[in-house]
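Workshop exercise sheet. Pairs work together: one partner reads the sequence aloud, the other fills in the structure field after running the prediction. Swap roles for the next sheet.
Pair: D.N. / O.F.
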Amino acid sequence: MKNRRSGEKNRMHLCLPALSVNEGVARSAVAVFCAQMDIGVTQLADIKCAVSEAVTNCIVHAYKHSAGMIYITVTLYEGGIRVIVKDKGCGIADVKKAREPLYTTDAENERSGMGFTVMENFMDRLAVRSRPGKGTVVIMSKRISAFPEKE
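Structure field:
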């Protein structure tokens, strides 16, 4: 890969239709990809949970009245991972408000409003960028202590 950032070890791109069944596919694919790092079970579970929440947000909120795609990029780098989950859905009008614990725009369907809080607690960094009518990008990072040596 020519355009690797400093310390980048590997990168995966995944594009899936925003269907409930694909939440598990995304979570599993990211976990398998991250397993090439020297990563503990707890750290891997944290990443899987955060990815699950980000993808579920795309399915439930971004494309609630239409079909769409979810774009996931996972980058393994020296010392950690970065996961980007992107949609081209309805976007979020007020990201700051949406990141508040228990805030939901879908209370009638018993949504807890904890998705961003879960992502924030399981990952070391969380950034959310959104434009109404254009979509949302969620960027999550987690520090990992080591990367196994090449044989």
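Discussion prompt: The chain has four helices and five strands. What would you look at next?
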